[in-house]
Amino acid sequence: MSDGNGNVVQLSAKDFKSDQEVRWCPGCGDYAILSVIQGFMPELGIPRERIVFVSGIGCAARFPYYMQTYGMHAIHGRAPAIATGLAVTRPDLFVWVVTGDGDALSIGGNHLIHSLRRNVNLKILLFNNRIYGLTKGQYSPTSEIGKVTKSTPMGSLDYPFNPLSVAIGAEASFVGRAIDTDKKGLAEVLEAAARHRGSAFVEILQNCNIYNDGAFDYVRDEKENRIYLRHGEPIRFGAEGEKGVLQQTDGSAAVVEVAEAGEEALLVHDAGHREPSLAFALSRITFETDGAVPLGVFRSVERAVYDDLMSEQLEVARERSGEGDLAALLHSGDTWTVG
Amino acid sequence: MRYTSDMAKAKPVESLDRVVIRFAGDSGDGMQLTGDRFTSETAVFGNDLVTLPDFPAEIRAPAGSLPGVSGFQVHFADHDILTPGDQPNVLVAMNPAALKVNVADLPKGATVIVNTDSFNERNLQKAGYESNPLEDGSLSHFHVHEVALSSMTIEALKEIEGITSREAERSKNFFALGLMSWLYHRPVEGTLGFIETKFAKRPEIAEANTKAFKAGWNYGETSEDFAVSYEVAPAPLAPGTYRQISGNSALAYGLIAASKLSGLPLFLGAYPITPASGVLEELARLKQFGVRTFQAEDEIAASGAALGAAFGGSLGVTTSAGPGIVLKSETVGLAVTLELPLVIVDIQRAGPSTGMPTKPEQADLLMVLFGRNSESPVPVVAASTPAGCFEAAIEAARIAIKYRTPVYLLSDAYLANGSEPWLIPDASTLPDISTEFATKPNDDDGFLPYRRDPATLARPWAIPGTPGLEHRIGGLEKEDETGNVSYDPENHDLMVRLRAAKVAGIASDIPELEVDDPDDDADTLVVGWGSTYGAIGAAARLVRGSGRKVAHAHLHYLNPFPRNTGEVLRRYEKVLVPEINLGQLRMLLRAEYLVDAAGYNKVRGRPFRAAELADAITALVDS
Questions:
Q1: Is the pLDDT of residue B3 over 80?
Q2: Cβ atoms of residues B234 and B212 within 8 Å
Q3: Do the chains contact at B301 and A68, CB–CB below 8 Å?
Q4: Cross-chain CB nearest to B306 (options A20, A51, A85)
């Protein structure tokens, strides 16, 4: 990276740490995520001043305060909308959105799906802990049905959202998932997201050790339940790779014993498939349905980027009409002169 | 054959000093287009004019029904006028419903031109007439011209190929326009050119409308039913180049001008809503000015995106009407605490809730002033005339940029759709409203994003991309100067007061309140704001015409008030505040200045009539 005077400056993780004291609860999964992001930022080779983190409200939304970049801690659910205005007017910037399951999928659900369908050049990180942390433990739109919390003493009635299914349903051009404590896996997915042009959506399974401790133990601790998706490779997992995923004739994906199904029957992961249905089928594999969780890049396709299209229209308008002339505009239409 | 105003003089001509015409028909009859064209002809001719379009929210309400009636009123004169006119001198009624809805507004002796073809039993029944008003004598107070508009139009167009008689019938509004153009000696070249351009892709429709227009003109000239025609001489306007402009166009142009004058690219976030969509549509076709228009998924996103753009150094603007503004209030609150420029345009309409979407009202004042959580002061600028929306938009942007604050700009449905002649300003004389972004640290310890300019109390605007000024801002309370999150009680009190003082201080940077008090000895002051400007001004003229004295002051700034407002109010024994609400400004003036201001309040979804205001003023003057 250059410092603007032709000198190459190599930044390190500490250059991305702000002077603010980090105030998440001790043991929160957010610390691990912050550390991974501060660690891989220098590798992108983008100067700090061109990076902006925008967030909404919630525990995750405090994230921008801890990054030595530009940042805005905004209002509940609105970060994708605010970031859209910033990204489309400033194509030179590298804009990230940090959000949580309540912020992105409850109050901000509308902005999330619309930024994804437009394919605005945003990197959206959803820290999913399946609970409202900052407001002290009410169920969230990703909480499992029947969740007993302070606001649902008899159990929640809501059928939960699957964040990836929502994003893929909105035809996001990049969709991935990682685990807070899985530094390598998280860095890989984040780096792929960072290098993707257009909207990149990453769900990060994050442990809230105060209000929903152990929500992801089945995949955080039990590594054999992690299904790492690798583009172009058959999907296999398990302690010995003894399990795999195949696509059934109805389009859905199923977990099978490789010994029974045969290696050649396994689904070869294609993150670049034009249709979102394959990624959607993979998103339906959950711990609840199959006892395992796919991780990595589900989908990464090229699609026209909203920011670019908007800039192109301005250029076309200038080609057609010339650079806007205020006096000519004011005198447009029928005019008449007095005196 | 040439259609000129001279030709119309083949018959006797009467001179008039002013005329009010109302075109009324079904919402599918093209009355807005007809009114627009007549207005353009009138503007080009050089009359002063004011218009009042009045249409239903439904695009095509059931044909022939009372709710489906769409009207367009134009008042034009050989002298300076201020309102669209209280009562039409001429009503053009395309069907019985249009007659029924409008006839009560006509003074005795008014002229009524009706399309007799539409006065059939079915339409009369739909309009709720038990007998045909053309036959039962109920219109005996008026001069009625019965014109077979539909059948004469169809007859005139029968030789055009590719036009069905149903399509031909739809050109009847141009027949009516041609007739009215003859009757009032309007120049027609503009309309003929307009038809060519507008229907360029359907030459047969262009031909039909042109023929219908000329047939209407010729009918006026030859029919014995129209014995005289009228001329209204041009008004002695100030020298210069003029155009006709509506409030929404003027507002859009003002935003473009503000972008040019500030050097900041314009970003508009908007969600379609009546009557504000016109601004989005106008700006969307001006992309050669570098305008980015973003039709968002909702009102919230529209304002959020505008604020995000402002963070990045654009002139961020969001436009809406009351039902959308309520959704934007959290963004405005964030902009208050982030101290970033943002212009929020509220084109008020009748409410509450969805209310009457196409009708004007002034009842959002208290909402924009106070409709946010906590102490969150926002400057408010209000436009008073359609053309005045241009300057008001520049002024709102100037304040927003200079003071790093959200600013509300108030217009309403009357200003948005109404139009008037506009002396086009010289673009080179418009004010410089540019600002400077922060480029380097403002303290030995680095960059302090909330260290203020001592004169304006504005904080530095450091946009992303500036090396060395990386900082975080947010909705949490900030420590003075550093902008770091702070829960310190004294700091919070200080920040609340600083934000309030910054907005209050704008009073020293706006013009004083002017008073129109010709002899400087009136006892009674009328104070208004917004679109009542014309009606109050016209009412004051009426009152003065009766030998009484009255002063008029109009507020263009509702927060802060001009610094001499209290002094002006206290100078008068009696104060009247007419508003199209239940007394919102009056409440503020009473609270702020302890004056015993009286109100005149009607909330009908219509502008005030000058005569009713004159009555109210007269009563107060005589009391």
A1: no
A2: no
A3: no
A4: A85
Contact list, A318 vs chain B (CB under 8 Å) = 287-288
Cβ distance B238 to A339 less than 8 Å, yes or no, reads: yes
* B578-613 confidence digits (pLDDT tens): 999 999 999 999 999 999 999 999 999 999 999 999
pLDDT given for residue B1 in this prediction: 41
Handedness of CA A214, A218, A222, A228 (dihedral sign): negative
Give the bridge partners for A94, in sequence order: A51
- Please report which confidence band the pLDDT of residue B2 belongs to, taking 50, 70 and 90 as the band edges: very low
With cut-offs at 50, 70 and 90, classify the pLDDT of residue B56: confident
Taking CB atoms and an 8 Å cut-off, how many pairs form between chains A and B?
Answer: 211
φ, ψ for residue A249 (rounded to 5)? -65, -20
Q: What's residue B162's pLDDT?
A: 84
Selecting from B240, B286, B297 the residue whose C-beta is nearest the C-beta of A111 gives: B297
- pLDDT at position B61, please? 79
Spans of chain A below 50 pLDDT = 1-2
Determine the Cα–Cα distance for residues A107 and B569; give it in Å rounded to an integer. Answer: 47
Residue B59: per-residue pLDDT: 78
Is the pLDDT assigned to residue B4 strictly greater than 60?
no
Nearest Cβ partner for B467 among A49, A52, A93: A49
Which residues of A fall within a CB distance of 8 Å from B426? 327
What distance in Å separates residue A102's CA from the closest CA in chain B? 17
Closest residue to B237, CB basis, from A114, A329, A338? A338
Token pair 């509004």 in the structure block, residue: B173
What is the model's pLDDT at position B375?
A: 98
Nearest Cα residue in chain B from A309: B292
CB–CB contact B331 A68 (8 Å): no
Q: What is the pLDDT of residue A3?
A: 52
Please provide residue B203's backbone torsions phi and psi, each rounded to the nearest 5 degrees. Answer: -55, -30
Q: What is the mean pLDDT of residues B483-490?
A: 97
Q: What is the pLDDT of residues B138-149, one digit of tens each?
A: 999 999 999 999
Residue B575: which H helix or E strand, with range? strand B574-579
- Coil, strand or helix at B4: coil
By CA distance, what is B253's nearest residue in A?
A330
Determine what percent of chain B is predicted with pLDDT higher than 90: 94
Chain A residue at shortest CA distance from B282:
A329
Give the residue among B405, B427, B430 at the shortest CA–CA distance from B560: B405
Of B314, B427, B471, nearest to A89 by CB-CB distance is B314
Distance CA(B446)–CA(A50), nearest Å, equals: 18
Q: Please, are residues B580 and B413 in contact by the beta-carbon 8 Å criterion? A: no
Q: Do B464 and A52 touch (CB under 8 A)?
A: yes
Contact B427 A57 (CB under 8 A): no
- B289 neighbourhood in chain A, CB within 8 Å: 324, 326, 329
Could you tell me the pTM of the whole model?
0.94
**What does the pLDDT read at residue A116?**
98
